[in-house]
Amino acid sequence: MNRPTFETLELLLEDGIALICLNRPEQLNAFTPVMVREFLQALDYTDADDEVKAVVVTGRGRAFCAGADLSAGAGAFDYAGEGEGSEGVFRDEGGLMTLRIFRSLKPIIGAVNGVAVGVGATLLLAMDVRVASCEARFGFVFARRGIAPEAASSWFLSKAVGISTALQWCYSGRLVKADEALARGLLQSIHEPDQVLAAAKEMARSFIDHSAPVSLAVTRQMIWRMSTVEHPMDAHCLDSRVVQQRGRSADAREGVAAFLQKRPAQFSERVSTDLPDCFDWHREPPFH
To answer: What is the spatial distance between Cα 282 and Cα 102, in angstroms, rounded to a whole number?
Structure first.
């Protein structure tokens, strides 16, 4: 399929890995409504293209993302009268992005090349894994701006670092250094600045080189969606239906045959056409 081009992002495909680069380096990749829209379009593309097996998100220049573009001045966060979608009511743009990441059918890795503040920090929380430069800094600065946490970070942040750390970081709004972010679980690893992207790509390769794309898609969705259900029976019910359908798939037959024959598996099923039909993998609860 034709790869889209964007005004504020770059989208590259390298041997099965889609690289989404926030591309406003002179503005430290600060988010604008155009960038939000293009980021959503980029993920629609990566989900739809079966050549894409995993996604890495990074920033051009010396910042990952400095947050929302505040060039509008003191009224930058005044959303009075704004609406979004069929609900006809305001929806936080950061949340539109993290919920879209949440629904992704491809693994997503954040490669944090520099400062990540505001939506630049909360955007990362819905990604599966985050690696960062040793010079990266993270700022959940909302109270310092007189606003509140956004991008569904009230749900995502405590899952990454725990409630106490999430509150400390949001209360103070201070910049968190990479080594502290690593110690608290926000990051998987830290690297020299010129090695961050290579580390993210190497991790992506480890995910996709020997795994069935459809199995990766359902695994991602099962683990994220079942993370807060009330009882493990909910997970057992979903697991049982998916296990049954995947167990009779061509991929399952190939995976077993490859193991017995001691050769690499050649998985043929596609995310675009072969997801198990026992669950709506694109489902999003209604906004209320």
So the answer is: 10
- Give the Cα separation of 88 and 20 in Å (integer): 30
Q: The tokens 């991790």 sit on which residue?
A: 203
Residue 157 vs residues 120, 161, 221, 288: alpha-carbon distances, Å: 13, 6, 18, 22
Burial status of residue 241 (CB atoms within 10 A of its CB: 0-12, 13-18, 19 or more)? middle
* Model pLDDT for residues 39-62, shown as the tens digit of each residue: 999 999 999 999 999 999 999 999
240 and 183 Cβ atoms separated by less than 8 Å: no
Phi, psi of 225 (to 5 degrees): -70, -30
CA–CA dist 170, 145 (Å, integer): 11
pTM of the entire structure? Answer: 0.93
Residues ≥6 apart with Cβ < 8 Å to 263: none
Report which secondary-structure segment, H or E, holds 49.
none
Pairing of strands 129-133, 108-112: parallel
